[in-house]
Amino acid sequence: MKKAFQHFSPYRIVNKTFATSTKLNAKQTITTIVNPQVEYKQFFFKHQNIEYKAQVPKRPNQTLKEFLETFAKERSTSVKQYNYRDFEVCRCQKYLNLTKTINDLETTPNDKEPITILDSTLTLSNIKFRELRHLSHPFTDSSQALQVFLNSFLDKFHPDMEKLNKDSIITNLKSLQSLEKNKSKTENVITGIMNQLQNIFPDKNLKLEFMSNYKLDLSEYDKSDVEGAFIMRNVFNNVHIPVNILPPMQQENEKISRFNEEIINNMDILRKLAIKNNNILNFGVITDFHNWKINMYHKPKDDQLEKPNDYLTSLKYSLSVSAVDLSLNSISIILRVLAGILTVDQKEVSKRTF
Which entry of 56, 64, 160, 345 is 20 to 30 Å from 31 by CA? Predict the structure, then answer.
């Protein structure tokens, strides 16, 4: 199936869909008229498993950034406008700096390692183009390696449950039914639960700050920004934990669908936090208050493209709570895991492989 693109100077982009081959089929190319007075360079690349050929005017200092600016224009529609920061380029399992010039990149129709343009924002629909198929159903899938790591906190952290305010948690959760579309009040509920950590772990370095509508400006890295995030930060070690909150839902299908989307959205925020803060391991939380998932993102070295084990999600933790009672065992497990990821020692975890 061919996708329609608007063709305009200076680029001619030709696309083909390949069911079994990654080679460009010359017989199917769409030809457009180019300026005979201009010398062109053929530039082959791949985007979303489709190969393209561009006729790029041959000039010494033309950069990948300039190329992406035009590519973004051609991808834009009346519904969605793109810019170059919505995409990133990789080759040979490495991200390419956008200052690299087109003339420095030799491409052919049968490249074993083609230039590949990726969407810079992770979504459930585009992760397959990064070979992250293990996240196709993230709410029901989990990583055993990550689970072993998270379970280690259950032995290291011993909460003083006498200092837990059970009634406060129950009251907060009971209020959720009327807060479904009230973002700020829903975030207040999670803040009330998380603040219990400082009471029940007085011997740990936990001092929490909560940031709503958090904007992560990534313009200096040529990446798309994060806007409207809810971030929990431990002041002592500057660990940032993005928390994606879902309202409780009655329909199981709707709940799973929303969780799947928010788990990947949380992964996107984690990756961009790692770029901004230059951390090795970053953790995130996704919850509807009754179900809790923990994400982990590992930042590769030397601009390497992420592998599947750099994006992991945990088993589902369940909070057993009724209108009148709260399971101390279930809340203890969740709070110990949260305390663990908030107090992670970056030097220590950098030695660990998942």
Answer: 64
Q: Between vectors from CA 285 to CA 284 and to CA 290, what angle results, nearest 5°?
A: 170
pLDDT digits (tens, 9 = 90+) for 181-213: 677 888 988 998 999 999 999 999 999 999 999
Residues 6+ apart with CB under 8 A from 42: 53, 54, 55, 56, 107
Q: Hunting for tokens 């996240």 — which residue is that?
A: 135
What are 291's strand-pairing partners?
A: 318
First to last CA, the chain: 38
**pTM metric for this prediction:** 0.88
Going by pLDDT thresholds of 50, 70 and 90, the confidence category of residue 35 is low
Please give the pLDDT value at position 265: 97
How confident is the model at residue 347, as a pLDDT?
77
Closest CA to 204 of 66, 342, 85: 342
* Rounded (10°) angle between helices 328-342 and 144-156: 100
Q: Are 53 and 70 in contact (CB under 8 A)?
A: no
Mean pLDDT of the chain: 86
Size of the chain in residues:
354
Q: How far apart are CA 259 and CA 139, in angstroms?
A: 6
Query: Domains of the chain (ranges plus CATH)?
Result: 13-120 (3.10.20.90), 133-349 (no CATH)
Residue 128: predicted pLDDT: 94
The interaxial angle of helices 183-194 and 166-174, nearest 10 deg, is 160
Nearest to 71 by CA among 37, 105, 40, 48: 48
Tokens 């950034």 map to which residue?
Answer: 65
